[in-house]
Amino acid sequence: MIKKSLTGLALAGLLATTACGGSAQPAPAAAKGLRMTIWTSNEAHLKLFGDIAAEYTRAHPEAGPITFDPLPFESYTTTLTTQIAGGNAPDLAWILESAAPDFVSSGALAPLDGKLTEAGDLTPSSTKLWQRDGKLYAYPFSTSPFAVFVNTDLLKKAGQKPPAKGWTWEQAVASAAAVAAKEGKAGLVVRDFDYKNWDNLASLWRGWGAQAWSEDGRTCGFNQPEMVEAMTFLHKAVFTDKALPGPGTTADFFAGEAAMTITQISRASLLKDATFGWDLVPLPTGPKGEYSVIGQAGIGVFAKSPNKDAATDFLAFFSNPANSAKLAAYFPPPRASQLNVETLAKSNPLLKPEQLSEVVIGGIESGVVKPSHTGQAELSQTVRAALDPLWLPGADVKAVLDGVCAKIQPMLGA
Amino acid sequence: MGHAAFWTVRRRDNLVGYLLVAPQLLGSALFVLLPLALVGWYSLHEWNVLAGTFEFTGGDNYAKLLADPGVREALAATGLFSLGLVVLNLGLALLLAVLLNQRLRGTTFFRTLFFSPVVVSLVAWTIVWQFLLQADGGLNGLLEVAGVTGPNWLRGEGTAMLSVIIVQVLKNVGLNMVLFLAALQGVPAQLYEAAQLDGAGAWRRFARITLPLISPTVLLTSIITVVGSLQVFAQIAVLTQGGPGTSTTVLVYYLYQQAFQFHHFGYGATLSVLLFAIVAVLTIVQWRMRRRWVFHEA
Question: What is the pTM of this model?
Fold first, then answer.
């Protein structure tokens, strides 16, 4: 008896794992209504989407209810692809810039040409990532520059000058180190980096002119002199100057725990109830002068969705000029006609005109998109693992970066 | 005598028996055997979820499996994890069981204390440990009080694996402890009395009476623990994401990365066939070995 139950137990246990290799769920019957996966669960964002959707369903009751399905940001693409694999794909989805090459090249998305309202207004820099063979596969609903939020109270307490446009990385690190040393708070936090999501470091290394891989995506850039110099600077800032909190240490700027943070301006909404003085300034200048990095997100319609046409129609409504102006409150618009201080100021009461013009408009005009590549997830994981030895005091920066290229060059060349 | 009735007692009994096991059998076929067969089928294909393509590639995934250095790293990490877990878990569980099998005040309290992590949600347990194990977390705070500068547990090559093992041991040691306790209480007291009269010391009594008599439980717990250790996932996903480097990328985590992060679902299925084979072989080996080291069977 015991033998039988044991074998059963062992079998059940191992099947629990092996079965998850890909169980085929039947596709749900074409339910009325549309579902869009998103990665924000911010109430203000959700309310705005809900309002736009409600307006659409009033005019198009046949489309049925529209639901927004927030998925956790950290595992967003993984969750989305798991839903697709399980036969439970949404009708529309937000897509991160890192996943753009895979989604656009795979044919998973339906082309949007001729469907969007006033598509000619979309800036070429915003649509570049979402095109293949001259066709547009997603609406670039957010083109958000990286900038530095500054806790001016903390800087003042530590006797540091508040930063302004044109400041340098040396100044940024010096101020951050001073706050860390005198106030016991974190200095500069590269938000969402956490010594894992290395693509966020593009907001630093572009100042040195470094890039993860060449424009054509075929040559590794990690062991190029610019990158070695930038990473040497970062390593010193973390481990010698203690200007950035080290690996395994968390600090939230928006809770007042850090002097500065590099993140996208869409985070400004987190400062609505801030209890400290703050400013928003462009990224510090590097040896190569001024630069700007942008993160992007697109909304695509799945080609296999049974509600493809209704979903495309809703996307056209969601992205029309009037709604684009509303969305601009959180997501910088891709429409050239709306990239001006007047439009942005109406929807961004938290930001001052000079912040909007220097950081948002200036950033979008000259910005380089965060690194992305086909097979990004695997590349990204390989780089993360190969970069790990760098996050130790006394690391040999050049050797580690050579190691990164040794690992990823075969994947890039393929 | 007429022709024999079709529904003999024997046949009727058999029918009732089959009907009784039918729901269980159906469930197993649907949720166990079918997915298992599908995994085997998927492993012969290249399945691109995004493009929606599903192409037969024969043994390509298996050839990739043999050539993939990532698999060797994952197997090494899995072996290290399993070994560490089994040794620490069984050792600690047996020690606790022997200690708590004494007739002393407070044993019920300690039994409950050590068992309680078993019923805590695995992810909640792991997230709490993640905070404790941060560079500036609770554990290093305690060490600081004692004048020791703790390592960055989840970031160091060796300490990351050690942390994952210990978090898992503390989570599940209570289950094995209870199983050992039950077994210990089934050992007849007169055997100890007789041995004591014959002049056997405490260690001798343990080695010659306790261990042989609880050997079926040792077998049970070792199988559960080994099989469980090969499936470790949530702890890795929460604590280290397979890092630093690939030092804690165990087979299941590697499988997850390949299938769900890199979209190689066919190759992911191939890796789960490998996992299935390993667990099956280990289980068979352990069953074979029981003849040698299990003293009696319940």
Answer: 0.83
